[in-house]
Amino acid sequence: MLKNTTPPEFKVKIDYQRCRRCKRCLQNCSFGVYSFADRVVPDHSKCVACQRCVGYCPESAIEVIPNPAAFKYSSNWTPEHRKNIWKQSEQGGMLLAGMGCDLPYPILFDSMLLDACQVTNPSIDPLREPMELRTYLGRKPDSLQVETTKDGKLKSKTHIEQQIKLEVPIIFAPMSYGAVSLNTHKALMMAAKEVGTVMNTGEGGLHKDLYAYGDNIIVQVASGRFGVHAEYLNAGVAVDIKIGQGAKPGIGGHLPGEKIGMEISKTRMIPIGSDALSPAPHHDIYSIEDLRQLIYAIKEATNYKPVSVKIAAVHNVASIASGIVRAGADIVYLDGFRGGTGAAPTVIRNHVGIPIELALAAVDDRLRQEGIRNQASIIAAGSIRSSADAAKAIALGADAVAIGTAALVALGCRVCQMCYTGKCAWGICTQKPELTARLDPEEGAERLTNLLRAWALEIKEMLGSLGVNAIESFRGSRERLRGVGLDKQTLDILGIKPAGR
Amino acid sequence: MNHLYQKDISGCGLSGIISTTGKLIPAEDIIKTIRIQNERGNGLGGGFAGYGIYPEYKDYYAVHIMFDHEQAKEDAEDYIENNYIVARKERIPHRRTSAITVHPLLWRYFVKVRTERPDLELEDLNKDDFVVKTVMKINSEIDGAYVFSSGKNMGAFKGVGFADEIADFFMLEQYQAYIWTAHNRFPTNTQGWWGGAHPFTLLDWSIVHNGEISSYGINKRYLEMFRYKCTLLTDTEVVAYLFDLLIRKHGLSAKLACMALAAPFWKDIDRMPEDERQVARQIRQVYGPAMLNGPFSILFAHSRGLIGLNDRIKLRPLIVATKDDRTYMASEESAIRTVCTKPDRVWAPRAGEPVIVELDAGVA
Predict the structure, then answer these.
(1) How many other CB atoms sit within 10 Å of the CB of residue A422?
(2) A9-23, A148-162, B229-243: which has the minimum mean pLDDT?
(3) pLDDT at position B91, please?
């Protein structure tokens, strides 16, 4: 192996005056930064800035800082480009990355502003008036037929297919058991149940202990079909067919064999220690009519639970989504290019796909133009970082948003982007028992519940200032958004006016 | 004129009178109820809708149109004459008044749809649908032409001015109707445009509206899915189209349409008995994008009745009174008392609770 000549990304500074040599940093660091020779000695090259040691040092003696090592300045040959080339010239492999794209592409959410009421219409105080966020995901008919019975009562003659009831229009994005720990899954489920929303299992099946949370679970079927069986399909309130992922459109998945222990082996129905490879395409879906067959096969197997289809936001996402709805999907899950992942080739993560804001606007428009918007709900995902992002996505046309990274951050994730190493020091994206034990599912659930409660309060506050008291009066109401500093074409695609108009 | 929607901000006064026995009410009564509410307008918009005003042409669509210029009139008339049998066309009678000196060309046409038109067959439209399509076409495609009303045996009279000045201008004293609605407008940002005054109508639906539809953005996009074009650039237009969609196209009763537009809260729905709960839940699931949010009181008239409706938390006033065969609705009780000093009953309807008054059965 060639010598590693890449300078370390971070420097670990230890204040030896404060350090009492308790070695807690050695215990906590899962990346092997520390060794002990009379005193704590850091290996800077191994540090990923996960901040675990910093948080757990009882003497606050540790500081992690960016390595100030000077690279000769070039705005073109940035240090990142140089470092990547060094790494690849040493090892000859694809670079891997965790979490979502970290390049500074424009973030359109940050160029949109919401409206508020002044004088001519009153704003509504959510502390004093009802403010409704309840959302039903699923296919809706074009119209209703209601008859009045002889005794004057109303009776509906329309059958509406099963819906997913959400008390908050935010769900937890698919993250598989295998990529994340069982405790992470548990925390997500407990929080979903507490708040009245759902979590998506991701593609790794559902651990048998967690079937009890079925009312708050969407089970996923992906190209690897891990852990898919009849009972699993019927375990949740809906089934999600994963076609693509925003972080790696057109790319499959690879869970390394060392992560496949007994429990994951049982859940995924694969041998212990074998790599779990999800093919890039579903090998029974080579065209839209094949997807239709799978959708209806699943509906038949589940007594017609809603079926969601998750796709990555790519260039012609609008026509793809239209096809998906016409193929019978009840929910279209759109994942923007900034969406997270446990592992993806860096080049794909950083350079493939389109932003969720544009994809969402294009899909919502297309479904309306075709008069089929009511036939499917839209879930928007791919870096929803705050309740403001969620609100803007809903105003652009999303029925609900999904959060993955935000949920993990609530659980302690520091976005060090080392998910693919299996060494997550916070016990989230790892299967090592000494690490997974660090995440207490009950405490995690409480943090997640708090997060959703806080975002729900903020969304209610925004609705109140907009003078509406139900989320459906805001959903798709692009009139309440304005763009700042966006070009005409982008405004046109987003379907919003520039600020000042 | 550009078609970028500008929020229609208006505080307003409104009133309506219906005789449930179909007795004709002189225009004077409705004028009195709206004149006393001049304080609620600012002279930039007033209007009336009357039902039963054209008995001699009651089987014809009475199409009131305003034209900004002669070319618009020629273009619209070309289209109308190609597609309709025109029984009568004339200037809408009006007089020069000191209050209103500038006004568009104002014409009315009594028409029947030509049955041999290929468009009817091509799109399988019934006659009402074809009239709706005509209205959308004239409003959106003929520059400077706007349809005020298009129903049978009814008409809208509106313009820039206080409502009583508009009544004077249109010589409203000539008309008698079994339903009247009236509106005094207080726009704060649209400069006087005759098409922007209330009522807004489509076929025989007419709306007068006090308020601001904060959900306009989604209501409009929802209507576009059903090929309605919102061209008049105001909130109120969507209300008229929503009633048309829910009642005429989807066949909902007036009560259910009102339930969709000012939907009950989930906390109340959750406590309803099972059948009712299912209906209310389905209404919200299916018609969520049609729900009107924001402050409003609305009078919605059609050839068989008058409906008063408030928003979900009653952010704008609405008072109702009954006396003998008449029901009165207005923004202020004072308006009602100018023509009905001793009503049998006066009440303020609750938030989101529609007051639905229909002509007695058998009244033609």
Answers:
(1) 19
(2) B229-243
(3) 97
Question: What value does the mean pLDDT take over residues B150-158?
Answer: 96
Q: Convert the pLDDT of each residue in B49-63 to its tens digit.
A: 999 999 999 999 999
Q: Is the dihedral of CA B157, B163, B166, B172 positive or negative?
A: positive
CATH number of residue B182's parent domain: 3.60.20.10
Region B94-100: mean pLDDT is: 91
Q: Which of B12, B230, B258, B340 is catalytic?
A: B12
| Phi and psi angles of residue A154, each rounded to the nearest 5 degrees, phi first | -90, 140
Helical residues (DSSP H) of A249-355, grouped into ranges: 262-268, 288-301, 317-326, 346-351
For residue B7, the chain A residues in CB contact (below 8 A) are: 479
Domain coordinates in residue numbering, chain A: 10-93, 164-498
Residue B331 near residue B38, CB atoms below 8 Å: no
Q: Structural domain of residue B212, as residue ranges? A: 10-358
User: For chain B, how many structural domains are there in total?
Assistant: 1
The pLDDT assigned to B285 comes to: 98
> Between chains, do B225 and A368 touch, taking CB under 8 Å as contact?
yes
Quickly state the pLDDT bin for B5 (edges 50, 70, 90). low
- If you classify domain A10-93 with CATH, what class do you get? alpha beta
A64 by Cβ neighbours in 10 Å (0-12 / 13-18 / 19+) ranks as buried
Helix (H, G, I), strand (E, B) or coil at A335: strand
- How many angstroms away from the CA of A478 is the closest CA of chain B? 6
Q: Averaged over A244-260, what is the pLDDT?
A: 92
Q: How many CB atoms lie within 10 A of CB A16?
A: 10
Question: Is residue B363 in a domain?
Answer: no
ipTM above 0.90, yes or no: yes
Closest CA to B316 of B306, B324, B308: B308
CATH class in words for A164-498: alpha beta
Q: What is the mean pLDDT of chain A?
A: 96
